[in-house]
Write a structure and sequence with these properties.
Layout (H helix, E strand, L loop, with lengths): L3 E9 L3 E6 L2 E6 L2 H7 L4 E10 L4 E6 L2 H11 L6 H10 L2 H9 L3 H5 L6 H15 L20 H13 L4 H14 L5 H11 L1
Parallel strand pairs: 3-5
Antiparallel strand pairs: 1-2, 1-4, 2-3, 4-5
Helix pairs in contact: 2-3, 4-6, 7-8, 7-9, 8-9
Length: 199
């Protein structure tokens, strides 16, 4: 079992990072807050969850063990797989997810793509007691990051990320364009988050 991977960042996208260590490049799926935290860095250390199926072997990476624990709790709920878990962690910060579950905020959970009312209630029922024990701290302050000026690359990056999360290109483009009309100089991570809420 892989606990963590530490090495050089050779490629970084909103949905994945390639980390090279000992001559091997690992393709690691990540959530948006992780992408934002790794932006501008040359190296990283990510804690790993291995999703092994008959037809696939996927790695999911997290900035720390607490985030990985949150992910493991989410995918322990019936009906939530690794990709849906990543969708949840891309839609909100870890501390926000903890707060939603701890306070029984089913409406907020239900607003996440792929989470219906029954699944939202199941998450709260299954995880409410467990989630409070996690010591989650929100240390990502987007306000300190430089504004990401609107460019063709920003739009394409956001659309590409949504497509990789499972949305059609047409739907992704409409959602991204809708956000950009209101906030043309938005940071790419926030652009994807708001677009997710519009889909």
């Amino acid at each position: 079992m892989i606990d963590y991977i530490k090495g050089e960042i050779t490629e970084l996208n909103p949905t994945y990072v390639v980390v090279e260590t000992a001559g091997v490049g690992y393709f690691i799926n990540i959530a948006l807050p992780t992408y934002s935290a790794l932006s501008g860095k040359k190296t990283c250390k990510l804690f790993i969850y291995e999703a092994i199926r008959e037809d696939a072997y996927n790695l999911f990476g997290f900035l720390n063990q607490v985030e990985r624990e949150l992910f493991l709790l989410l995918i322990s709920v019936s009906g939530i797989g690794p990709n849906t878990g990543r969708m949840i962690m891309s839609s909100y910060e870890a501390a926000e997810i903890q707060q939603m579950i701890a306070t029984g905020n089913a409406v907020a959970l239900n607003s996440i793509k792929g989470i219906g009312p029954k699944t939202a209630q199941r998450i709260i029922i299954d995880l409410k007691d467990k989630i409070i024990k996690l010591n989650i701290e929100s240390d990502l302050d987007l306000s300190t990051q430089p504004p990401h000026q609107l460019s063709i690359e920003t739009r394409q990056e956001a659309v590409s990320a949504l497509v990789m999360l499972g949305f059609s290109t047409n739907i992704a483009q409409k959602a991204v364009d809708s956000v950009l009309k209101a906030q043309p100089d938005i940071h790419v991570e926030q652009l994807i988050k708001l677009a997710l809420k519009n889909i």
